[in-house]
Each structure stands twice: as C-alpha cells, then as structure tokens.
Amino acid sequence: MDNHIAITALNDFIFCPYSIYLHAVYMGSDEDIYKALPQIKGTIAHSGIDNRNGSRRKADIAALPVYSDELGLCGVIDLLRQDRGLLIERKYIIKNIFRGQLYQLWAQYFCLTEMGYNVESLAFYEISTNKMIYRALPTDADKQELISVIDQFRKYRPDKDHIDINPNKCRHCIYCNLCDKTHEDNVYT
Ligand code: SF4
Question: CATH code for 4-178?
Fold first, then answer.
C-alpha cells in the first residue's frame, strides 16, 4: 500500500489491532487512518505553518502536519520549540507512558527530521501538573522496533490474525459495544 499511515493509528493498533478494523468499519472511511501522499503534502502546503524560511523562524511551531516517506507515516505534531530543538507532546494527565505513545513521539521525530527540522530532545508535557517528562531520542534499535510495528500494521488482517482479548482493555475501548470479540460493557456507557 502506498498510502501513509496516520501516526495516531499506531497507538490504537498497539492498544488493540482489531480497533483499527472497527474504526474503518464504523467511521465509514479509513481516510483518517491512511492518507495518500499528495493529500498530505497538500495539507502542509495549505497549513500556513511551515515557516522555515519566514520571519517566525524562532517561534514555537504548533499543530504542524508532518510526514515521512521513509516510514510511510503522516500526522500532526503538538509543539516544536525550535530554539531548543524540543519536540513536545501535551497531555492533560499522564499516569503512565505507554509504548504506543512513545511510538507516536518517535514517529513525529522521524517525520520532522526527514522534513529538515532540527530535533534534539523529546518530552511529554503533563498539563494538569505543569510537568515535563523527557525521553531519549530513539536509537537505531528503537527505529527498527518502530519499523517492525508499522510492518505489522500493514500486514494485519482482522479476519485471519489472532488477537489476545484483554477484558480490561475492552472495557476502556470506545468500540467495546460494537465489537464482536467481547461481551464486556464499556465503562463510558
Ligand atoms: S473491544 Fe476489545 S477486542 Fe474489541 S477492539 Fe476494543 S480492545 Fe479490541
């Protein structure tokens, strides 16, 4: 498949691969899971945020659409502090940093560096406590791990591949009441 995978979909895939299938079925389109490259580049061209050559060279950049042709990913970053080369993902509350969230931050990093931005450090920012949680830049091994997940994503077949059902995850899954893999009730209903 030539289309790029939305970075946010990687986190959903790590949570439960079957949720990607349900998303595509019940949201009526998988446009927000996959995007074609011309569409991504069009989004960037019209965003008005790409200021690499503009007067806001040193300003923070928020909500920048990004992509990586090498990894076949696209998405939107939260915040890049260009003066410090610091990429930040903001969340209201951070109890744990899950692997899928780390993959998202790494993916954003690889997109930005491929696009020519300088990124020297990564952090999550917990809004509720005003706390920065720094994370190391991905190593070569981390990149291979991310590539492996992307490969699994592209090869996933919901009608054939086995998934481990975790009732606790199901109860916190937004597709719980639509999912044919569980009889759990969603905690949100
Ligand atoms: S309800 Fe459970 S099995 Fe179904 S998509 Fe959600 S986490 Fe996966």
Answer: 3.90.320
Kindly report the pTM of this predicted structure: 0.85
C-alpha separations of 26 from 29, 113, 153, 158, 160 in Å: 8, 34, 19, 14, 20
Q: 160-188: per-residue pLDDT in tens?
A: 898 889 999 999 888 888 899 988 777 76
Q: Is the CB of 14 under 6 A from ligand 1?
A: no
Domain boundaries, the chain: 4-178
Burial class (CB in 10 A: 0-12, 13-18, 19+), 67: buried
State CA 75 to chain mean position distance.
7
Mean pLDDT on 16-35: 77
18 pocket-lining for ligand 1 (C-beta < 6 Å): yes
